[in-house]
């Protein structure tokens, strides 16, 4: 996951440091110094969460009397803490930032409280305003909603309109991957730019995020309906070979070491003609510090055998099932995921800072339309028209997820497989060898899953 923006990173780091110095960081002790009630929130530490924490007292506690003790941790640490605390179910935390990866796992294990009754009773919350695609992503197998999106993102293809004009090329309105590869070959080297920037850095939330969308739309799947690993199938192999060839021939130098921050920096500095990645990156691409501001076009995620191919991601708020403060926890979630919070941040910091990709109404707000004029229509389409998390490819599969496999073992499995693919991108091994090793890893992971590994 699920998503730091490079150009805002320095500001966020300074803000985070200021919060720590001022003693605002969650201490692990429930506080009753202010208001009638206190809840504890565990969340991933990124710019949006830091901003939320900074304005909680002003916009939430002052109105409800509920204080919030935050524990903000880097993503890997936050996930490790969530897994441990939610599995124990001792109510240490009331709310946590869970992603579309955790929701199906946690809900299946009864670690999250269903939120349908709260949302229904809270008319101002307006559940129907949440993107339907995100509602599906945070819905458990039992049909109940287990988290409420704080912000979300899809994926799309970004391209340099100025370089395309210079070379006489035209970007299709709904490109296929084969069209993208052809365009990359023709534009590669123009003004010193690589044909396309793609993630190669190992990590299930790094190179596997875009790679899995390619696998899906080429007809591949990690497992069939009997949980047989399919990483050496013709479809999976074709997808990986395509991606590896594309980035090796026309990608950025050192692609095997390039993650989302690296390719964002390259694209923003004019070193790439195209980039396929998260819709949330448009804010940085169109920021004042970007050399390509105003020069970029946005089109849907490339597809091949499917109509849609984009990924879908969200950081959302879930309540620990063992929490004794569910009502107060819901009041926090209702505010943090609300239209009101978007307006508060938009009016205070600027509408570029409002958490986007979660509520449809934001995209009809004139303030946001002006701030995000270059990309808001495409961002809206990227989230609304992403692939279906429960059926993102050609055939049925036994797991939920677009850019991941919704089983606990995938965090480890995906990381190991991503390293194999990165080695192929670096030219250290063939795609065939990388996938043969990955096939065995996938078989072992599902064996653990099917024997009760949570």
From TrEMBL:
SUPFAM superfamilies: Periplasmic binding protein-like II. The keyword Magnesium does not apply. Residues 1-23 form the signal peptide. PROSITE patterns: PROKAR_LIPOPROTEIN. This is Putative sorbitol/mannitol ABC transporter, periplasmic sorbitol/mannitol-binding protein. Keywords: Signal. It comes from Streptomyces himastatinicus ATCC 53653. InterPro entries: Bact_solute-bd_prot1, SBP. It holds the Pfam family SBP_bac_1.
């Amino acid at each position: 996951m699920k998503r730091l923006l490079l150009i805002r990173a320095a500001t966020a780091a300074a803000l985070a440091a200021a919060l720590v110095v001022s003693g605002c960081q969650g201490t692990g002790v429930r506080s009753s110094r202010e208001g009638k009630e206190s809840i504890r929130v565990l969340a991933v530490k990124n710019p949006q969460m830091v901003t939320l924490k900074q304005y909680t007292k002003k916009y939430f506690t002052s109105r409800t009397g509920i204080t919030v003790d935050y524990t903000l941790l880097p993503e890997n640490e936050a996930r490790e803490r969530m897994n441990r605390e939610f599995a124990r179910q001792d109510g240490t935390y009331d709310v946590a930032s869970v992603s579309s990866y955790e929701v199906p796992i946690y809900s299946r294990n009864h670690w999250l409280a269903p939120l349908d009754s709260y949302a229904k009773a809270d008319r101002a919350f307006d559940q129907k305003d949440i993107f339907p695609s995100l509602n599906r992503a945070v819905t458990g197998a039992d049909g109940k909603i287990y988290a409420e999106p704080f912000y979300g993102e899809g994926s799309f293809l970004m391209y340099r309109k100025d370089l395309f004009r210079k070379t006489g090329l035209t970007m299709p309105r709904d490109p296929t991957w084969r069209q993208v590869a052809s365009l990359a070959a023709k534009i590669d080297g123009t003004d010193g730019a690589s044909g396309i920037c793609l993630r190669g850095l190992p990590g299930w939330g790094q190179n596997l995020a875009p790679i899995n969308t390619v696998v899906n739309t080429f007809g591949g799947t990690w497992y069939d309906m009997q949980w047989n690993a399919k990483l050496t199938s013709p479809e999976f192999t074709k997808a990986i070979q395509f991606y590896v060839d594309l980035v090796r021939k026309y990608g950025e130098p050192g692609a095997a070491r390039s993650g989302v921050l690296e390719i964002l920096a390259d694209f923003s500095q004019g070193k790439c003609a195209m980039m396929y990645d998260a819709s949330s990156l448009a804010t940085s691409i169109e920021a004042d510090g970007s050399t390509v501001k105003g020069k970029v076009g946005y089109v849907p995620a490339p597809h091949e055998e499917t109509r849609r191919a984009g990924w879908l991601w969200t950081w959302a708020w879930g309540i620990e099932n063992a929490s004794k403060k569910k009502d107060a926890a819901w009041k926090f979630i209702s505010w943090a995921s609300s239209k009101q919070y978007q307006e508060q941040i938009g009016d205070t910091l600027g509408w570029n800072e409002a958490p986007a990709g979660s509520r449809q109404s934001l995209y009809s707000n004139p303030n946001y339309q002006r701030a995000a004029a270059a990309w808001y229509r495409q961002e809206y389409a990227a989230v609304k028209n992403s692939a279906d998390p429960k059926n993102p490819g050609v055939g049925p599969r036994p797991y939920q997820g677009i850019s991941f496999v919704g089983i606990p073992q995938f965090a480890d499995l995906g990381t190991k497989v991503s390293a194999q693919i990165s080695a192929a991108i670096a030219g250290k091994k063939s795609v065939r060898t990388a996938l043969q090793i990955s096939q065995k890893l996938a078989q072992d992971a599902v064996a653990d899953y099917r024997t009760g590994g949570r």
